[in-house]
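Handout, section B. The chain below has 121 residues.
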Amino acid sequence: QVQLVESGGGLVQPGGSLRLSCAASGSIFSINAMGWYRRAPGKQRELVATITSGGTTNYADSVKGRFTVSRDNAKNTVYLQMNSLKPEDTAVYYCNANALVPSGIRYMDYWGRGTQVTVSS
């Protein structure tokens, strides 16, 4: 099984910054894409940013120019640098990994438990 643990969430003022980290552990054969999703009150879980094993990134329009996703393949860790935070960024942020375990036949999505990000003055 693959476990993902997020860290770095918290309370920040508008315009501030946070850096989220997510480390994948367990029996992992390979990880393809990793990414961040968020769930805000009254909304479905939405994509924030993804990054492939080769470093190709994808961002939601709402965070382009403000957020940067990166990863360390050797550590099976993905990061999300969040700058110029806005109140509408308030949400629980979830880490995702599309991974293959040694006994697996195909890549599957694994999820962390989430970390709260609150942007408020």
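Note. The mean pLDDT is 97. Compare this with the example in section A.
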